[in-house]
Structures are given as structure tokens and as C-alpha cells.
Amino acid sequence: MKRNIYSKLIKWKMSKRRKPLIVCGARQVGKTYILEEFGKNEYENSIYINFEEKPDMVDFFKNNLSPKELIKNFALYFGKKIRPEKDLIIFDEIQVSNNALNSLKYFCEQAPEYHIVSAGSLIGIKLSKPSSFPVGKVNFLYMYPMTFLEFLDAVDFSNLRKLIQETESFKSYPLPFHNELIQHLKKYYYVGGMPEAVKHFASTENYYEVREIHSEIINSYQLDFAKHASKSDIPKLQIIWNFIPSQLAKENKKFIFSALHKSARAREYENAIQWLQDAGIIYISYQTNTVKLPLKGFVNRNAFKIFVLDVGILGAMIKLNHKIILEGDKLFNEYKGAFVENYIAQQLTAEKQIDLFYWVSSGKKAEIDFLCEIEGDIFPLEAKSGINPKSKSLVSYNNQYNPKTLSRTTLLNLKQDGKICNYPLYSISLFPYLLKSN
Fold first, then answer.
1. Closest by CA position to 153, among listed 211, 207, 193
2. C-alpha dihedral sign at 320, 321, 325, 329
3. Residues in CB range of 326: below 8 A, 6 or more apart
4. In what order do the strands lie in the sheet with 139-142?
5. Contact call for residues 189 and 197 (beta carbons, < 8 A)
6. Would you list the DSSP string of 246-267?
7. Rounded-to-integer distance, Cα 52 and Cα 7, Å
């Protein structure tokens, strides 16, 4: 399956500042697959070491981290010469071996001619011993669930992806394309972007089995709670994880600690929330009442929303039935628009890799779902679940800050009306660059 990160891997290979690479991300987002494809397509040979599948490989790093010695042992073990520039070395599940992680420092300093990529779970790498992390000696790439555009590729509708990517103005799409894209978006809301689920759906269109895959992924995340988290945080992780869908279903999607139980306090759960974020399985959007650069400097750290890493996983958590896909646009309005906001949070994170913020007016009478700080500008974005474009919040924001443009994303077609720009939900990848190019 085509992944957006592949072009970044090519850039890494050709970069003059190339260092050993760590590809981070939550479990099951496709890190291993893409690195193996990269090695197969872009190098003459590759060697693959998975420290979880073959724990004895850790022994190579036990006493000597000299790149020369490690390369000699790898060549002997795999029965092939490992050549600089021409061959790729892949370390998978690198968080299992602190010494292997630390060895990247020495490859950077002593043997930069060797091309080394590694993959690991975010939480495992973050929990590695301080002395084992090669600070300043590695490059990073972050991998997320598949975006809607990647989904279109996977289900063999690359022509529709091309249509979106080649859009250069706010001219509406022809109605047949618009309607077809909405149908694919509904499927994406259910299937989501976890590669195994997408691949299975693309070959079978079996919604029931797709949901089974989601359940297996959710179980693996919950098992990670017990594997990596401290004993005191495990119950809290489970409580927060289970609570996210019901909080998103509320009109006010702000995370309310007292809703967990009456005596709950933020300080009791902040470590658990940080753990979930470090694991890559939630996104956090912080509230700000002040629209100034940088947004991060004006947020209220005690007011935030929590989104799940993938809309398909969110649907599985609330046991959404696939029959809703057939019921007109009901899916977009279900759960008080929670799917729409979660979808936008997921796309913005994967496509733009930006921090998430939302704005609430001082009197709390208006709220903008997303404030995006991109290339030194702040872009407000209202996310609507249907075709009703009216927004008192955009009007309030405009009256207070008078930005050059206002953006919203709805089920309506591409359109610009004065300073208000409407992006169809399926083409949110165009935000905000389309308005910047006009």
C-alpha cells in the first residue's frame, strides 16, 4: 500500500545530513511494512533484525557497540556482505534493546556511510533509559494511521486522490465526483486508517471482519497498558481510554475529570494522559482564549479535548454498526459530530503534523473547533457535521480578530464566499494551502 511517508524516506536517503533514522508511531500503523518496502525498492539488499521476534539478537549489542564489530557480526549471521550506501539495515522493535538504541550514536559518529533505519513504539522509545538514547545523533520520522487520501489509493480510487491533490482554486467539484467522494468518506469513517483494516476492507469489503481487526488492535493497546505503564497508572489508563467516546459524544467535548468520578482531580490523571499521548494513541487539543503567536504560549493546560488516533478505532469503541453507512448522511451527524472532529484532528495531525488547539471566547459563547498555526500564520477552522454552513462562532471570531480568511469544513462542495472558505470534509488536506495560493 502507498504511504505518504515513503517520499520522506527517499529524502532521508538522499539527505546530506542523514543520520540513523528512527520511525516512531503507535502500534499497528504500518512502520515495519513501509521500512521493508523501502529496503526492497531502494537498496540492493537489506537485512532485517526484529528484537522482539528474535530476542537473542540483543546479545550482539551486549559488550561491544563498535559499528565495525556489529557489521562484521551481522554479515556473518546473515551470510551476506553489508555494503555502505548500497544496503539497508533495519532494526525493528528497537525499544526492546537499549544497547541497540544506543548503538545508533556510534553509527552516526563512526560509520555514517551505513544506512540504518529503525522502528519502534513511541512509548517504548520514550521509556528507554536516559543513557541509551542517542540524543542529537538520529533523525526522526513520525508515522500515523492512513489518511483519507491514502485510503483512496488503497481502495483503488487514486483518480479521486489525484483530483483533490490537483485542485488549484475554490471551483466546485462536478457533482458526480462530490457525491462519490462523500460515499468513500463514509466508508473511511467506519474502516479508519489502520493499515491492516484498510487492506482487508480493500480486498473483501467485509465490514464485520474489519471491526474484528479493530477489536484486536484495541486489545493490543490495552495489553500495552500492563506491559509498559506503572502499576499505579494502569487502572487510570483504562478508565480514561474507556471514557473518551462518551466525552466526545457530549455537546461540550472538553475533557471533564469529575465525569470520571466525583472526586477525580487533574493531578491524579495527568501522568496517565501523558502516557496515552506518548504512546501515540490519543491526540490532545488545548484550549486558548487568546489568539497570538505562538499559540502554545497562550493555552490553558487544564482545558483540553482528547481524540482517538483513528476514527475506525473510535467507531469500534462505541460499537458503531456498519449499516449506518447506508442511512444517508446520518453517520456524519451521529455522536453529536464527534466523528467529524476526531476525523479532522486525525487528518491535521497526519497531514500537517501540527499541534492542535481550539478557541473559546472569553464569555464562552463562541468556540472555534481548530486553530492551526502554520508557517507563521493562524488559521481558524470550523468543523461541521452536515450541510448547514451557518456559524455564529465564525462570526464572533471574525468580529474579534478580523482575519484575512475564515475556513470551515462541511459536507458542502468546495466554495469561497467572500472571506469564508468551505472545504469539503474529504478535501481537508487542501487546508489552508489552497486559500494561501489564491
1. 193
2. negative
3. none
4. 45-50, 87-92, 115-121, 21-25, 139-142
5. no
6. HHHTSSS-S--GGGT-TT--HH
7. 28
Question: How far is the C-alpha of 12 from the C-alpha of 6, rounded, in Å?
Answer: 10
Cell 467535548 found at:
253
Residue 28 DSSP class: T
Handedness of CA 163, 164, 166, 169 (dihedral sign): positive
- Which residue carries 471566547 as its cell? 361
Domain 5-142 sits in CATH at 3.40.50.300
Q: Is 223 exposed, middle or buried (0-12, 13-18, 19+ CB in 10 A)?
A: exposed
What distance in Å separates the CA atoms of residue 50 and residue 119, rounded to the nearest whole number? 9
Residues of the chain short of pLDDT 50, as ranges, are: none
Helix extents (H) in 229-329: 234-248, 266-278, 311-317
Residue extents of the structural domains in the chain: 5-142, 148-436
> Residue with C-alpha cell 503534523?
353
Distance CA 201, CA 145 (A): 15
Helix 234-248 vs helix 266-278: crossing angle, to nearest 10: 90
| Helix (H) or strand (E) segment spanning residue 339 | helix 338-352
Neighbours of 405 (CB within 10 A): 17
Beta partners for 229? none
Q: For residues 96 and 92, what is the distance between their CA atoms, to the nearest angstrom?
A: 9
Integer Cα distance of 274 and 94 in angstroms: 22
**Residue listed under C-alpha cell 461541521:** 384
Residue 254: the pLDDT is 86
φ, ψ (nearest 5 deg) of residue 25: 165, 165
